[in-house]
């Protein structure tokens, strides 16, 4: 009864008679023949989770996800980030078998938008959204969402060959400084390239079924890298759902405790007279606590904390196979101390590579609170590209096409360059800024943006 009363308060029946049929209980679909329940955007927006109830809209249908969020396969946070909002485009973007998912959604259906309600909230660009959906239909019709299995097989083979080459370097040439350094570099390449490959499987962009993508994802991230798939999913899908949105994108959780990010948040922080760090020097200490430290200092221990706390025993088993393999491979050649030195050298080099590549397309971009913009505007204001070249594609795992990747997260990466001209045309037509820059300029922009936001914080801190 409590669930019925809670739902009926926000509901507006449009049945012709004075007595509408009894509202179905919370989380149940209206029975056949009952009058559908209608809602306004204002009523949906009030169920954003602040008062425990969470509703969202997909194709004008209203779903109550209050209880389901905890069981959501992608994690409770990623779906909750769209509570009180339209989630049609992220729903389409993230799921490769939408028909199957919709069957499970029926039990969450509580009604639909009233006929007089627009299909989009007033904060969203209607024309841009319509044309993007037409573009997506074109992309699917052209087969650009289909993967080339040979491409990903070659990616895996080149990782495995480099892994063997690293061991052979020490076995053939000994453990002096030069072979040790060369082995470290080769293993760092292996770890970074395996990171880009696990990203493909994590995004379900290789196989047609989620099952096979998840299985190989466990192998690549667990056995080849020693990290948990569940941890990656938990963080990364939130980033894609709301990139550069404070308290929704975990990739910018370093604000405000380590860095002041973005023009809006930095000024806000200064006005609040908050100073966790000397942010006006953050473009300098970034070189100490950013690229060198993220993986060896933070991620290395946090991944074990994550899997144990959340009881992800399958992930832990996959991770243990990595540590057993690398221990048995290198301890006989280097001894325990030499092995530990090699391991942390690899994590150090990998961390520098990983941070510069992943942050070059986001940190210099707009960072703010969630303003509930349309899907295209949300992704474009938070991402930029780096020019295409054979080296840039390999070096970044095709994440130099961040714009296309964020708009079509399940698209196989070898097709990003094919869809890029279509996306550029869409952006030009609607006045949406599409940024692409050289690799070194993208790296420099990270430092420049940190310096700028640090100065904005200082000015607001001292004078506002």
Automatic annotation (TrEMBL):
GO terms for biological process: unsaturated fatty acid biosynthetic process. Residues 1-37 are annotated as: Disordered. One of its GO terms (cellular component) is mitochondrion. It is found in: Endoplasmic reticulum membrane; Mitochondrion. The chain crosses the membrane at residues 150-171, 177-197, 285-308, 320-346. It catalyses: (8Z,11Z,14Z)-eicosatrienoyl-CoA + 2 Fe(II)-[cytochrome b5] + O2 + 2 H(+) = (5Z,8Z,11Z,14Z)-eicosatetraenoyl-CoA + 2 Fe(III)-[cytochrome b5] + 2 H2O; (11E)-octadecenoyl-CoA + 2 Fe(II)-[cytochrome b5] + O2 + 2 H(+) = (5Z,11E)-octadecadienoyl-CoA + 2 Fe(III)-[cytochrome b5] + 2 H2O; (8Z,11Z,14Z,17Z)-eicosatetraenoyl-CoA + 2 Fe(II)-[cytochrome b5] + O2 + 2 H(+) = (5Z,8Z,11Z,14Z,17Z)-eicosapentaenoyl-CoA + 2 Fe(III)-[cytochrome b5] + 2 H2O. SMART domains: Cyt-b5 (SM01117). Its main location: endoplasmic reticulum. Pathway: Lipid metabolism; polyunsaturated fatty acid biosynthesis. Its EC number is 1.14.19.44. It is a multi-pass membrane protein. GO terms for molecular function: acyl-CoA (8-3)-desaturase activity. The keyword Protein biosynthesis does not apply. It is an enzyme of class 1 (oxidoreductase). Keywords: Acetylation, Electron transport, Endoplasmic reticulum, Fatty acid biosynthesis, Fatty acid metabolism, Lipid biosynthesis, Lipid metabolism, Membrane, Mitochondrion, Oxidoreductase, Transmembrane, Transmembrane helix, Transport. Residues 1-12 have a biased composition (Basic residues). Residues 36-114 form the Cytochrome b5 heme-binding domain. PANTHER family: ACYL-COA (8-3)-DESATURASE (PTHR19353:SF57), FATTY ACID DESATURASE 2 (PTHR19353). Belongs to the fatty acid desaturase type 1 family. This is Acyl-CoA (8-3)-desaturase. It comes from Muntiacus reevesi.
